[in-house]
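ERR on first pass: missing label on line 2. Operator R.T. fixed the label and resubmitted. Corrected input:
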Amino acid sequence: MEHTKTIGYDRFFGLKQSTLFIVLGVFFIYPFIVNNYYIDVAFFFGIYALLGLSLNIVLGEVGLFDLGHAGFYAIGAYTTAILNTKFGIPILVLLPVSALAAGFFAYIVCSPIIHLRGDYLCIVTIGIGEIVRIALINNPFDLTGGPNGVFGIDFPSLGSLFVIDSSIKYYFLIWIVVALSIFGLIRLQQSRIGRAWNCIREDEVAAGSSGIDVRYYKLLAFVLGAALAGIAGNLYASKLMCVSPESFTFWESCLMFCIVLIGGMGSIPGVLIGAAFISLFPEIFRPFAMYRMLVFGTVMILMMMFRPGGVWPRKRGGVEFKSILARIGRKDG
Amino acid sequence: MAEENRRNNNKIVLQTQKLTKIFGGLTAVSNFDSQVHEGEICSLIGPNGAGKTTVFNVVTGIYKPEEGHVVFNGEDITGRKPHQIVSCGIARTFQNIRLFPNMTCLENIMAGQHCRGSAGVWGAIFRTSHQQKEEQHVRKEAESRILQVGLWESRDELAKNIAYGSQRMLEIARALATNPRLLVLDEPSSGLNSRETEDLMEFLKGLVKEEDVTILLIEHDMNVVMGISDWVIVMDEGRKIAEGLPEEIYNNHRVIEAYLGSDDEESEYDTTSYR
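pass 2 clean. output:
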């Protein structure tokens, strides 16, 4: 999240700069004061943050109910796993390749269903997620290794000089990717694309009648969301060194859905909080593992009752830019 | 008749030719011919269920007609998608206001400018000079529109939080932000009080005078229809039953019949709401 200055706002997510520096400080110091286990917890926090951000494009910005996002995540992970183990292509080269593969897959499968609304789309995306998972289990063309999955995936490396092989390096790798994604997504939010997405979420018919190509922007959201999930899949695969279909179940899609709902639809800091909740919660409450789901369910119900907009809903307003006609406005009184 | 000639001298902006729209067994619009001339305010009136809104939805691309054509500025736009029709230059508002409720008023208007921009994902992420220039332009346009409809003070409020009358004006401003040649308004005065209606009438008159805009509107309030229309088209049961100058329509017996029912049939419509 080092990019605060380049964005050039006095306040970032509505936080004061001092608060932000403290957060950044903790972020840098954290891996040096805890053991590997907790660094890995933070790594998975990063993975979930990335997945949450990716689903946030589709669910949060455009309001499309996508409960099959694990399918895109799986495509990214398996693209990396297969191309790396079969052809020895380096992981970092496969990072954009996984994104492209997942994005392309999303384009192909979502084109025919993009006009569906609400629950109908939801059902179809559940289907997509499940079909991907079952296809992986069925081991098509002897590529995916069936239920065992693919193993023996390399570490990401820059030549032979710099190999990302320790927890701490993975920690920084994932959070740099998360930071870059946040940077790009904030800029998208503040552009005409972000506005078009939000318009479609608010009222599809009105968006079309205001000149927004609804179909194009919905597809764009799916493709970008899937590409980001593909990147998460790439990093996940290289971290675990193996991928198997059971990592990409419907439950995983549900978790991503919860991340966005807990945080607040369309809110990037909200997604980070949601991801923290989903990934850190089971660690903190490990002794009470039996009751985890019970507590989780209760929290979700309470959330829906008392904060239906999420923990940190996106605030809108004119603070983002200086008004060009402010002078005229003042003249008018 | 002189008026008629004056009308014919102006270029035709919008023309519907033998428009027919069928829903299941119901013919909502049948063989509907009409012409809207440049620079005029044309009203489409008729009892409830006459097919007025269906005509609007066909013209703006929400429905595809079974038969017939919609010609805009000499170009056949039948069956195009709503956003394509907006970029041709037809903008609309809705009978029941359809804003983007959780976005600010200014953002609502900026949405109207969308079709005039071209920046993509790349431009947005890397803030290219083209994208920034475009963004400045969009903001300037949106801000001048919000000033025009007198909602400057509420520019940063969420659209759902402003008063009903202001929401109507905001919707019109959003339509205007698309730089339309033809503005299609579906019952712009419904739900407004008499003062707001007066203001709206003044606003629309001024708009036609000052900008290169033609207005087609559906209206139930006869004061508005008679007050601002240059031309009135009357529909009943999916067909055009009359058209003419407001005064002519006011005294046309077929129109009165359609609204009040003829002597030998019971009135099907609630007539009280039209005056």
